[in-house]
Amino acid sequence: MRENYVPVDRHSAKKLSKNIIDSNYFVQLEKIGRTKKMKTLSCREMAMVDCDFVAKGQTDEEIVQKMTEHAKTAHKETMGDMMKKMTVDEMREAMTKKIKDDEI
Questions:
Q1: Other C-beta atoms lying within 10 Å of the C-beta of residue 7
Q2: pTM for the predicted model, two decimal places
């Protein structure tokens, strides 16, 4: 899907001005006074102060998956130490608590 656009059903489209809907029934959010929510979580927020990685997505699950994949490759040693102290569920919970909702 295109960034900052949302699909609109044909019935709703009839109520909107023709100049804000494209031929595929997508409307740009800014043109109807709305913004799209994006969830984010950075390595810095997870105490990895030397890493600028930021996971972005629409759901908590997507963010946790992206952070986990990044950590496995970029922070192998730290992940190994954390796995000795926390369960996978505890790590997921810690990440989920720090996820931020941002408007894009």
A1: 12
A2: 0.62
